[in-house]
Amino acid sequence: MRPALEMFITPAIGIVCFAIILLRRFDAEKDFPRMKAKLLYVLCTTDKRFPPSIAPVVMAKLKAAGVEAEFFELTSELGHVASGLDAAKWAPTLQAFLERVAHQSQQHLKHRRVSG
User: Fold this and answer.
1) Residue of 49, 53, 44, 45 lying closest to 24 (CA atoms)
2) Is the pTM value of this prediction over 0.85?
3) Rounded distance between C-alpha atoms, residue 12 and residue 75, angstroms
4) Cα–Cα distance for residue pair 68/75, rounded to 1 Å
5) Closest CA to 78 of 44, 41, 52
6) CA nearest to 106, candidates 7, 1, 2, 15
7) Which CA distances in Å does 28 have to 17, 54, 84?
């Protein structure tokens, strides 16, 4: 298998950018321990549904469940739709996150080949 392809099918790779509906509506907290993907959690400063004030609690719960997560607060006047309509404002953060995850994945695969 080609390394580039392996990188994208490895369970350690998964990019999830989401405003956590989970805790308020679907209570997915019980599923946190099953999350294998690295997580970039993006909330907008003016989002009324999921205000950034919920981030510390969510991040603590993710960490307690063993989820590798990073938080980014998007400054925008567009509220709940800002992550899409103001994507350019957080694109550098997403790009850096993806590069870190890809690098970690490559290191993991390299280690598996050497020790496997």
Assistant:
1) 49
2) no
3) 29
4) 23
5) 44
6) 7
7) 15, 15, 23
Q: Distance between the two ends of the chain, CA-based, in angstroms?
A: 15
C-alpha 77/C-alpha 80 separation (Å) is 9
Residue spans of the domains in the chain: they are 3-115
pLDDT tens, position by position, 63-112? 999 999 999 999 999 999 998 899 999 999 999 999 999 998 888 787 77
Calculate the alpha carbon distances from 100 to 42, 53, 54 in Å: 17, 26, 25
DSSP states of 57-113: HHHHHHHHTT--EEEEEE--SSGGGHHHHTHHHHHHHHHHHHHHHHHHHHHHHHHHH
Architecture of domain 3-115: 3-Layer(aba) Sandwich (3.40)
